[in-house]
Amino acid sequence: MKAEQIQTLHPQPGKTNKRISLEKYTQIRSTILNLLVGVELTHTELMEQLYNEVKNNFEGGVQWYGETVKLDLEARKIIERTGTKPERYRIITANK
Predict the structure, then answer these.
(1) In the chain, is it the N or the C terminus that has fewer CB atoms within a 10 Å radius of its CB?
(2) Strand, helix or coil for residue 41
(3) Is this model's pTM higher than 0.90 or not?
């Protein structure tokens, strides 16, 4: 039986993102969101921490899946870029 898939979104209009395993999406999504609770991280910090969190129990390219899911979370307006230099990511608060 084929693993359940999810079509991820891309924050740039007109661009399509990838179809990936729902199980991998869920694992990377929850890890990214846990890493961003109460902090803002640069892209490098986010990807390094993500890798360190899941490397021992994840099959596949952590950075590739991390980038795909990060773009999806941006497109769904769950996380955002701060617009600062260097660019940082944060969870969008519900009361904005």
Answers:
(1) N
(2) strand
(3) yes
